[in-house]
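For reproducibility, we list the full input for the beta-D-glucopyranose complex.
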Amino acid sequence: MKAIAVQRGSEGPAVIEKPRPTPAEGEALLRTLRVGVDGTDHEVIGGSHGGFPEGEDHMVLGHEAVAVVADPNGTDLAEGDVVAPTVRRPPADDSNDYFERGEPDMAPEGEYVERGIVGDHGFMAEYFTSRPEYLVPVPRELWDLGFLVEPISITEKALEHAYAARSAFEWAPESALVLGNRSLGLLTLAMLEYGVESDRSFATHDFERTYCLGRRERPDPTVDIIDEVGATYVNSNETPLGTVPEAYEPMDLVYEATGYAPHAFETVEALAPNGVGALLGIPDSWEFEVDGGRIHNELVLHNKALVGTVNSHVKHFEGAVDTLGELPDWLLDDLVTTVAAPDDVEPAFEYGHDQIKAVVEFDRL
Ligand code: NAP
Ligand code: BGC
Ligand code: ZN
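The corresponding predicted structure, in tokenized form, follows.
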């Protein structure tokens, strides 16, 4: 079967041939439909994040997938079920407490592998195998957008944790600022602007005023989407993050999806009293100067919180399925900028300003 992989010692992703996997006992065989590409994949390809499976000369890419059950292999799944796989697995199939209590997203490094990112092959292949507890049902009619369940689930988790950090008092947030205007930033902006009616989604609060910060000049397709969502575009070349409160207003929620390390600290300045900042970016080591006293003082005297959050698990995927079903069609159409075939994948890894979310399509329903 065809797979898209990074190989030790060579640059960029390549199409390789691999044997179709045989499901072990307790695993199902999945036929891949679509797999999305995000900033993390570019970090993995560039070598700044993640790592190869132990003892292997390559790693199959891809952690945002939608697939169909090809062979239930004795599991409770049925042939033809459409599913989105979660990303984390126990290291060397050796379970630990985090997995046993259904919170692998809270496991520290070393206590998990991530498919397509660190230590395990991903889903960018014609077939893959998985245990059923890592597969979340996706309604059949969403088969073509199901690869967005994983990135949406990342924000489901981030919002759960951010709101939990404000749950000890009456918090009535009105303003939200998203940092970053690619796929994660724009999906999150829409979730905050529209809110979702669902018991499973954590994105049920619709903010009265939403903003999205980027560093691009108009005209730009991502800024068009920000306008269409009804949010205010903040151009960080004119209005650096720390000056947002004077230029616009202090923010009740800041969601960082740039990976630009200074933003973690400037977020404290941008927050309103009692506000919370969720940090999602994954920067490399980077030294720079900050006014630590001021940041410390702001956090304390204004009851501000910063929450770092990574990955997600089943309940966040379930919330994400509901959220996906409620996001407007025009937005989802505009976000998907490339649908590439496995034997011509290069367009999926181009990352110019016209690219927002690329997918590799292995099969259709
Ligand atoms: P991405 O495609 O790399 O997007 C990053 C966005 O941030 C782009 O819009 C980029 O603008 C903007 N940006 C970068 N530096 C900036 C700066 N100095 N000022 C203003 N804007 C800036 O990544 P993504 O897939 O959307 O994900 C966002 C980040 O979250 C990445 O670091 C990714 O690794 C991380 N992530 C984390 C998790 C988690 O579980 N914590 C999950 C998914 C992703 P341009 O396009 O104009 O360069
Ligand atoms: C993935 C997460 C993963 C994180 C860190 C993100 O792009 O969506 O599932 O935990 O990268 O590797
Ligand atoms: Zn991702």
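The first strand starts at residue 2 and ends at 7. Residues 38, 40, 63-64, 151 surround zinc ion (ligand 3) (CB under 6 Å). Both points were considered when choosing residues for closer inspection.
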